[in-house]
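Comment on the following before class.
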Amino acid sequence: MAATSSPLSLEHQVCSLWELRLRVIEDMFVPQPPCIGWLFDRCYDHWTCRAGSHPTDKRTLVVPDEELSRVDPLLYEEGHKAFYKHNVFVFNQGGGSIYEHDIAINVRDYTEEQWRALRDRAAHCILSFVNLPLPHTRRASVYPQLSERFQRLIQHIVFCLADERWWHIEQLDWDWPLMVVWETLPNLKTLCLDLCSFSRRSLCRRPETEGGSQEKLVNGAGRMSCLNLRKLTLVGLCSGPYWSDEEHKNKMMKLFKPAMADDGKIEFMDWDGFTKW
């Protein structure tokens, strides 16, 4: 007599098939996470490195294949869910239009609103910010608009400086990555912030006052207290004049600690000078 499957085992099989299907969809939509060291020129052997992918163009945000997502409603729904949940979003500070301007001439005299207009366009489609560019300076996005229900699924974000030439220019919008409305990202687990402009601010033509820069940093870190991060990587925050300054490093640890989970970890990526080599 042939054995019959119990309702419980059939339910288990159905669940297993559904999970397998979701895994296949995830593999179709979610790219390999990037090597964080590579994004910040700290991976010196990408041929053998297994920390992630090493994209040639570090400034391009990968988005779901529109043609693939149109094949089936299930692909669109579950594919986008998987993408925003597992993808590592890499946004560039100033990367949205940095190469559309003569950075050596025009940008030096930009106003604060003009600096905001140079922000990564993709970031403004996907994330919410405290202060947005003015309507007439905001550029149209080439990326798909992200609904709030997908935004809340995001778990991994990286902000990095788009171009090394920015560090010697007066940048009035350096704290832009700290202006995200973090309450809209309740599932965020890992965050990488490039704050090298803070330690390089003395090289600006008209640098901010020490108090002004400190206030921006403190306010930005305070807005992150609603997060529950497993890992926070702070890039350049203790570089240059703060290199080997343990008092400053401990102060930064204490400043960003409220954004961490109980078992969360804060990492620093720094250089002893103003260059990464």
